[in-house]
Amino acid sequence: MSLVAVDFEHLVELAGGAVEELTEALDALAAERLDGFFGPALLERLGPLLTAVNRLAAEVARTVRQCEVTGAAEHDGKASMASWLRGHHRLSQAESNRLVRAGRALEQLPVLAAAAAAGAVTAEAVNAIASIAAPDTAAAADAQAVDVAEIDAALTRAAMTAPHADLRQAVGHYLARLDPDGPEPDPTEQRSLTITRHTDGSVSVRGELDAVGGEKFQTAIESIRQANRPAGDTRTRAQQGGDALVQLADNALAAGNLPTMRGHKPQVIVTIPLADLVDPSHGAGSGRTGFGGIISAARARWLACDSVISRVVMGPEGQPLDYGRTKRVVPPHLRRAVEVQDRSCVFAGCDAPSHWCDIHHVAEWLLDDGPTSLENSALLCERHHTKVHHGFRVERQPDGRWRTWRPDGTEIVVLEPFLVSA
After folding, report:
1. Fewest CB atoms less than 10 Å from the CB: which of 83, 98, 331, 378?
2. Contact of 126 with 116, CB cutoff 8 Å
């Protein structure tokens, strides 16, 4: 009995010593100044660090698995290692489950485990391959006499040499071949969309799509993203994607083919007091959208450039006393004329097509009493319409050309393309 106790204490001491040395090494790394390094030296430093991250991730997964096998979580009153990781180290549920799954996979896939321990594959790659070690998948492979050791070696080789997307495709191909006659999943069961509205009116969007639905969505977004790449565009790809999604919604609403909502065509609705709408100040939090978002008066004036305006007189108790006739700011015939005149967004360097654009009143019809006329109208895409309502300015010249100025008064000049003679 005493011998076992001594051995256990010795093992704890050895493990503690290794972790302590690791901590000291990390402290030394963190103490190094990086501002004196240049490109090649930084890359030389980064490579071994990434390998070390891979090795450390493998060791964490191996330890999590051993904790699971020995029931270590019970020591702290937890039913599982996933719940222990969430409660004691504040990991998300997804990350906790990933670590548990990775530990189980490394135990069953020795080639992958050796590569991970050597730092040759990433934790992400381990997670991608781990699905082949799931109980149902392993049972199906055993029933079909599949040599899992060969699959382990092949996928590990792919993880070490191929792009991650290719690895995921290889894993998916293996799983599909393992059950070629399985039921075709209903794509609608794989789709979900959650929209969360925040206190400032902004929303977060999270969704899941099946392979075909995802391909349709990506194709639509990418077509808009690639078609709207004006000169000098500094947006990140993520920002371009967000703008493309809004543009996709604009196009669908403008087409007029969406299903009606309670007998009316779907439309963006903003309610705002008239005094706030005509007040030139920013007016934060003055308008309320149909789905409960809060926007500024300035934002409402931007939307009003090309909208239908309805007047509702409210009583002191909030009851409607009078509902005025709807007034369309830009009638259809004027919009067609502006599209013929401008053909695309008039903001310097942008060539967004007319069907992506709003009609902008150059002299604002609310604040400047600008007329709703062909001479006072300009085509602006959603992005640049926002810019113009935040300090930028467009102006038509006598020859019909448009010029654009920044808020500081400097002009945005688009250089003419060079002509190269043969």
Report:
1. 331
2. yes
Do the Cβ atoms of 18 and 26 come closer than 8 Å? no
Domain ranges of the chain: 41-178, 188-265, 328-412
Structure tokens that stand for 145 in this block: 């006499």
Residue of 220, 219, 217 lying closest to 187 (CA atoms): 217
The predicted-structure confidence for 293-318, as pLDDT tens digits, reads as follows 777 777 777 676 656 655 555 555 55
Alpha carbon dihedral 158, 159, 160, 163, in 10-degree steps, equals 80
Q: Which amino acid is at 365?
A: W
pTM: 0.50
Alpha carbon separation from 212 to 178, 186, 190, 223, 247 (Å, rounded): 21, 11, 11, 17, 22
Q: What are phi and psi of 321, to 5 degrees?
A: -100, -30
Q: Give the tens place of pLDDT for each residue, 359-402.
A: 888 887 555 567 778 888 899 988 888 888 888 999 998 888 89
Q: How far apart are CA 359 and CA 345, in angstroms?
A: 10
Residue type, 373: S
Helix (H) or strand (E) holding 106, with range, is: helix 93-108
Q: How far apart are CA 235 and CA 250, in angstroms?
A: 20
